[in-house]
């Protein structure tokens, strides 16, 4: 217990706090390694704010801990501290310096934000569609896939839409995120810089299957992407052999269901390879059972599954020949 | 606890005639729980009848339909409850021209525990009613999330299906915000604000009683929603449209429950505003008000101006659901993002509603326990006003990735970051108040220091989230969960505990157990940081919030977090034991255990029925510790003002 402060000791407290914070900041890889140009810029803002935060936290923690250590009195002490009411210079200082620091963060952020929204002159355009509970990706050639393939080091302009409720598209390694809003297409720019396989996650609560609404993004180098894309273009030009498969993929069925013929391995809903068995359990003819399960999914719930998870909107979005193709496709692959 | 115990109560009742309990069938018409037994079903019947009649007249089929009937019942049943309890008796008599029952204060004060279960107009009783209610829902909300944390300990699905999990986390957040943090400050404020400004009660005691009783209604509706067919409210406490419009019946309970809590909050805030503006003791200028009074004043303005917006958002959702309007249905010309704008126009200011009173409490405690005047008093008060004004210009920082107008992001980022300036002023001023003080490391002081530590972490992560590029990566992830808990738990809840321990001797007349108080703090502080600090990492690495299941690679840290959260939950048991034991057996605290200058510490503990036997006269600043001969208040006939009036 003492009543006069030692500024040397205070400085030692501040240095010790800062050293601990720097170790915490650098020893743990807080963010994934940036895999896009946008991520690199965001990483810069992150470290800019990190260093300012380390400074501020040390400046707060040091006098806090030092005061508790140096100015603590014993129980029963009835003396009072010095009646200091304020200090204009200090008060101006701790108003002005934070003001300047946050202004600096704002300027850096605004510049990065503008750059990260710039898709360049001729970007690769992909439409991302969110629906309960799957992502689908449509390329300029009209083909739709449940997996996102991205070319390396090219600007990609994603247009996001939603068929039902709000979803949010996020690839943590690319640091880019954007909500998919029903009725309002939104835009997102990514420029991948590292090849690899990354998770695509929905981060806006979208219903009971929300936590399973995950997909995959594959960043491919130029040659691999181009050969995949031209192959895909040929497939698009050819008369659609498996119309049912296209409907299956376009509606994201494979995100929740397993079906060997479509290479789908979803585990949220019942296994579509076992449809015959399910129809028998339900006591219905196979064709009628499959159709009813798409159009009115809550009419019969397979044992072990929950009502309301499968969207009830497919009756409106898959109609006419598409529905027939899908039913036929599922029936023909049922075992 | 505030059992009025001394002679004042008898004087009051000798003057106005002792309250005689009604007998015979009069017991069924007299305000109280017996009358509720028949008034509540009556109002329920009226509600069902009304819906059925309208649907029959409009030829809507089916005429008898569950969702609209439930919606209306959640309004009329509580109204029946309030009418039965006597919440409206005075106004009904007054407006129908009947002679009103003379305001004889027979409904003032508490002589037994039963007096806490009726319409009671004493601000001290209402304060205790609030705090006990908050404590109940704090335990309920905590239990819900511990169940959810058990599910989250491992990836995959263990104990709860997604519906139950979503309902658990939705109700946890909703209860903690609307039934614990916001009203706990109303409860503490109710008890201490009239005392601190030298008033006999709040400006509108009957309104005050009514605003309290809206609160348990909100809580019961939110909890009841968990058990209805189809499952509880499951769209998160933000309840975004259009998702929430097509969810099970439980969401209707969320919808209506929030309305009751909001109405309670608005009515209390109006009461605080009028009380603080018009009922300050002679001599208490604005620049002599304690900082908690300043904080309550600014908070109440925020509540009155902002809370109607959340009411609007929930009404629109209800209309969409029940009346088939299209406010937020994209397919029918609705404005999906509009929900978020309206919702956050309340819910961001709500963060300051949940923080500013805490700032006030910390200012009181830090000054008293350091035995020094609060540093930079005027700038402390002005920074509250700055937060009030800026607080209304930052709502859209919750929506940087929502698809709103792109240009809006930079101006909102600037205002968001600027809020760090007045907030920083407060933190630095507390530190300067501690500096070279005579620091008494009591339980309230521990909570105050713990608060500063956690709140600075939450504030800095708030700056990160305010910077749009970082927000793009961190938004909607566990980083947000970490941030909101550093602000609302390490921030708000710590200040509530701080204020609770600080004024406990005033409320009960007894001292809590200091050792148990300190044990409670350390268990909570350690459990809190172990639970929430790792969540920053989870979020930045890619774990989304509000999921029952997650990628396997997050399994280890989630298991650690879940175990820590059980420890954090267990720390509350120490608090409960301490409070219940000390309430009955604690050593008498005396008037002023902290040797504080505030008016509330110059009266008995607990204070007499009408607070002051002699009129207080304010003669100086409330924080003149260390100034020889300085006084904040004198009682009785006006005396010449002592010289050192502070400012």
Account of the 3D structure:
- The complex is a heterodimer of chains A (about 325) and B (about 650).
- By secondary structure, chain A is of the alpha+beta class.
- Chain A folds into 3 domains: about 1-70 and about 85-115; about 125-230, Sandwich (Immunoglobulin-like), CATH 2.60.40; about 240-335, Cytochrome c-like domain (Cytochrome Bc1 Complex, Chain D, domain 2, Orthogonal Bundle), CATH 1.10.760.10.
- Chain A has helices at about 5-25, 35-70, 90-115, 220-235, 245-250, 275-280, 285-295, 315, 320-335; strands at about 125-130, 135-140, 145, 150, 155-160, 165-170, 175-180, 185-190, 195-200, 215-220, 260, 265.
- In chain A, the strands form 3 sheets. In chain A, strands 3-2-1-5-8 form a 5-stranded mixed β-sheet, covered by helices on one side.
- In chain A, a hairpin with a 5-residue loop joins strand 2 (about 135-140) and strand 3.
- The N and C termini of chain A lie far apart (about 80 Å).
- The model of chain A has no long low-confidence stretch (mean pLDDT about 90).
- Chain B has 2 domains: about 5-95, no CATH class; about 115-585, Cytochrome C Oxidase, Chain A, CATH 1.20.210.
- Chain B is about 65% helix and about 0% strand.
- The two termini of chain B are about 40 Å apart.
- Residues about 1-15 of chain B have low confidence and may be disordered.
- Chains A and B meet through helix 2, helix 3, strand 7 and strand 9 of A and helix 7, helix 13, helix 14, helix 15 and helix 16 of B.
């Amino acid at each position: 217990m003492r009543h006069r402060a030692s500024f040397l000791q205070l400085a030692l407290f501040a240095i010790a706090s800062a050293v601990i914070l720097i170790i915490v900041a650098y020893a743990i890889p807080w963010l994934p390694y940036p895999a896009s140009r946008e991520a690199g810029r965001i990483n810069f803002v992150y470290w800019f704010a990190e260093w300012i935060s380390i400074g501020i936290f040390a400046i707060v923690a040091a006098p806090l801990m030092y005061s508790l250590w140096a100015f603590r009195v014993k129980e029963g002490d009835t003396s009072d501290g010095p009646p200091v009411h304020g200090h204009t210079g200090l008060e101006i200082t701790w108003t002005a310096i934070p003001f300047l620091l946050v202004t600096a963060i704002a300027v850096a952020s605004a510049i990065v934000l503008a750059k990260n929204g710039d898709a360049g002159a001729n970007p690769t355009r992909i439409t991302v569609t969110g629906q309960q509970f799957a992502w689908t990706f449509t390329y300029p050639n009209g083909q739709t896939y449940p997996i996102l393939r991205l070319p390396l080091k090219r600007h990609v302009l994603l247009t996001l839409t939603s068929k039902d409720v709000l979803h949010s598209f996020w690839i943590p390694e690319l640091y880019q995120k954007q909500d998919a809003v029903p009725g309002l297409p939104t835009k997102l720019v990514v420029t991948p810089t590292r090849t690899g396989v990354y998770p695509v996650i929905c981060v806006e609560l979208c219903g009971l299957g929300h936590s399973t609404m995950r997909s995959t993004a594959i960043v491919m180098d130029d040659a691999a992407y181009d050969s995949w894309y031209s192959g895909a273009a040929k497939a698009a030009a050819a008369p659609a052999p498996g119309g049912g498969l296209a409907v299956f993929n376009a509606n994201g069925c494979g995100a929740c269901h397993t079906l060997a013929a479509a290479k789908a391995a979803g585990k949220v809903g019942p296994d579509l390879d076992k449809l015959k068995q399910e129809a028998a359990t339900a006591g219905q003819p196979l064709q009628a059972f499959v159709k009813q399960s798409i159009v009115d999914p809550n009419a019969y719930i397979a044992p072990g599954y929950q009502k309301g998870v499968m969207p009830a909107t497919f009756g409106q979005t898959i109609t006419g020949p598409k529905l027939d193709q899908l039913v036929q496709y599922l029936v023909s692959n049922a075992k | 606890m505030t059992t009025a115990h001394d002679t004042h109560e008898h004087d009051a009742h000798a003057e106005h005639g002792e309250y005689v309990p009604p007998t015979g069938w009069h017991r069924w018409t007299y305000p109280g729980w017996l009358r509720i037994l028949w008034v509540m079903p009556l109002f329920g019947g009226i509600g069902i009848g009304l819906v059925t009649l309208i649907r029959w007249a409009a030829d809507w089929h089916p005429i008898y339909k569950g969702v609209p009937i439930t919606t209306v019942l959640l309004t009329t049943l509580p109204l029946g409850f309030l009418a039965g309890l006597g919440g409206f008796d005075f106004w009904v008599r007054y407006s129908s021209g009947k002679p009103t029952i003379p305001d004889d204060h027979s409904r003032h004060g508490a002589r037994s525990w039963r007096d806490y279960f009726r319409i009671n107009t004493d601000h001290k009783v209402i304060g205790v009613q609030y705090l006990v209610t908050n404590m109940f829902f704090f335990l309920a909300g905590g239990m819900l999330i511990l169940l959810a944390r058990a599910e989250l300990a491992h990836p995959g699905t263990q104990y709860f299906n997604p519906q139950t999990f979503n309902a658990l986390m939705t109700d946890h957040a909703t209860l903690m915000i609307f039934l614990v943090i916001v009203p706990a400050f109303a409860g503490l404020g109710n008890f201490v604000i009239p005392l601190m400004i030298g008033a006999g009660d709040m400006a509108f005691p009957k309104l005050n009683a009514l605003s309290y009783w809206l609160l348990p209604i909100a809580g019961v509706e939110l909890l009841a929603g968990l058990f209805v067919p189809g499952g509880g409210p499951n769209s998160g406490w933000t309840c975004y449209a259009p998702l929430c419009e097509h969810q099970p019946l439980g969401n209707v309970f969320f919808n209506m429950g929030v309305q009751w809590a909001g109405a309670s909050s608005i009515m209390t805030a109006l009461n605080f505003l009028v009380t603080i503006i018009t009922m300050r003791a002679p001599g208490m200028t604005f620049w002599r008000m304690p900082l908690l009074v300043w904080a309550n004043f600014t908070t109440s303005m925020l509540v009155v101006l902002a809370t109607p917006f959340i009411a609007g958002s929930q009404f629109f959702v209800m209309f969409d659901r029940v009346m088939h309007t299209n406010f937020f249905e994209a397919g029918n010309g609705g404005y999906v993002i509009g929900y978020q704008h309206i919702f956050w126009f309340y819910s961001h200011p709500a963060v300051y509603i949940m923080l500013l009173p805490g700032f006030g409490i910390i200012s009181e405690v830090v000054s008293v326990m350091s035995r020094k005047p609060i540093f930079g008093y005027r700038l402390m008060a002005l920074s509250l006003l700055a937060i009030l004004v800026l607080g209304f210009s930052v709502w859209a920082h919750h929506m940087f990735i929502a698809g709103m107008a792109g240009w809006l992001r930079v101006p909102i980022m600037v205002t968001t970051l600027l809020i760090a300036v007045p907030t920083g002023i407060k933190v630095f001023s507390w530190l300067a108040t501690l500096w070279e003080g005579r620091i008494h490391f009591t339980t309230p002081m521990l909570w105050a220091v713990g608060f500063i530590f956690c709140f600075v972490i939450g504030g800095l992560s708030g700056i990160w989230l305010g910077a749009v590029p970082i927000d793009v990566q961190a938004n909607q992830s566990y980083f947000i969960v970490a941030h909101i808990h550093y602000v609302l738990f390490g921030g708000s809840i710590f200040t509530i505990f701080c204020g609770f321990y600080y004024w406990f001797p005033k409320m009960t007349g007894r001292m809590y157990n200091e050792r148990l108080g300190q044990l409670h703090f350390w268990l909570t502080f350690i459990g809190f940081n172990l639970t929430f600090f790792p969540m920053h990492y989870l979020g930045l690495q890619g774990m989304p919030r509000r999921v029952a299941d997650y990628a396997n690679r997050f399994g280890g840290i989630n298991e650690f977090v879940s175990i820590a959260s059980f420890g954090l939950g267990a720390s509350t048991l120490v608090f409960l034991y301490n409070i219940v034991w000390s309430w009955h057996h604690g050593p008498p605290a005396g008037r002023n255990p902290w040797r504080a200058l505030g008016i509330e510490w110059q009266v008995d503990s607990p204070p007499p029925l009408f607070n002051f036997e002699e009129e207080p006269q304010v003669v100086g600043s409330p924080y003149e510790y260390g100034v020889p001969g300085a006084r904040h208040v004198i009682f009785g006939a006006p005396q010449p003002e002592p010289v050192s009036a502070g400012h």
